[in-house]
Write a structure and sequence with these properties.
Elements: E1 6-10, H1 17-31, E2 38-42, H2 48-55, E3 61-64, H3 81-87, E4 91-94, H4 97-102, H5 107-119, E5 123-128, H6 132-136, H7 140-151, E6 163-167, H8 181-197, E7 206-210, H9 218-222, E8 229-232, H10 239-246
Parallel strand pairs: 1-2, 1-8, 2-3, 3-4, 4-5, 5-6, 6-7, 7-8
Helix pairs in contact: 1-2, 1-10, 7-8
The structure holds 2-phosphoglycolic acid.
């Protein structure tokens, strides 16, 4: 498989600048030189600069957890793609289910953000995922396809190298209830087919699984052919746990 595994940490709204420095420095020491897998850290905005500094000279890259699609303007409280570029940020998480559910982000808004990220040479980590009600109703694939198609509208094949997809079933996020490798693999294969159907080189796009990924379940997930990595919340906040996740064994 040509795709390099990617292990990404989403720190959400956790930690001080000092915490970020300690976490990023620990990870830089443990896994910063690995070049057989990509490592992405997603601190809160307040710790982006510190995290960048702590991983300087390593292969670890840093992602923002959100951004506005406009470059500037009267958008109180928002952060723009050019501001992220200005800091040296290369990646941005978009469409996380918490953004969709808690902050009301729509597929249309998320698509604008994806387009803007790509236009500013930022790699977009686009998250999709179904709720438990949707899964129980048998709508998982329909929902996921809808989110992928809407999120990637307007993205060209030439831009695909700047796209990472993350399948994060809402019922698995922060619940300790991880999807089984079989459940995740089924959806990942559908997502890849969906990307191909949009005229994108689906085989080249990394698709990460997210939702209660831990040191003790990452190995099983990573054996699946269409699971190319993980987007990790809770377990990305501890140096030892995230180190073990990066060092998953196939
Ligand atoms: P979790 O979060 O690993 O704590 O379930 C994953 C995510 O929301 O990205």
């Amino acid at each position: 498989m040509a795709r390099k595994p990617i292990l990404a940490g989403n720190w959400k709204m956790h930690g001080s600048v000092a915490d970020a420095k300690a976490l990023a420095s620990g990870l830089a020491a443990n896994v910063g030189k690995r070049d057989d897998r990509g490592v992405i850290l997603g601190p809160p905005f307040t710790a982006l600069a510190t995290t960048l500094e702590a991983v300087r000279g390593t292969n670890i890259v840093v992602a923002a957890q959100n951004m506005h699609f406009e470059e500037k303007g009267a958008f109180t409280g928002e952060i723009s793609p050019t501001m992220l570029q200005d800091l040296g940020i290369t990646h941005v998480i978009l469409g996380h289910s918490e953004r969709r559910e808690v902050f009301g982000e729509t597929d249309e808004l998320i698509n604008k953000k994806v387009g803007s990220a790509l236009a500013h040479d930022l790699t977009a980590i686009l998250c999709v995922g179904e709720t438990l009600e949707q899964r129980d109703a048998g709508d998982t694939i329909k929902v996921i396809k809808g989110q992928v198609e809407a999120g990637l509208t307007g993205v060209t094949a030439a831009q695909a190298s700047k796209i990472i997809l993350a399948y994060e079933p809402v019922w698995a996020i922060g619940t300790g209830r991880v999807a089984t490798p079989e459940q995740a693999q089924e959806v990942h294969a559908e997502i890849r087919a969906c990307a191909n159907g949009l005229g994108l080189p689906g085989d080249d796009i990394a698709i990460l699984y997210g939702g209660s990924v831990k040191p003790d379940n990452v190995d099983g997930l990573m054996t699946c052919p269409d699971i190319d990595g993980a987007l990790v919340g809770g377990a990305s906040l501890k140096v030892e746990d995230f180190t073990r996740i990066v060092e998953f064994q196939e």
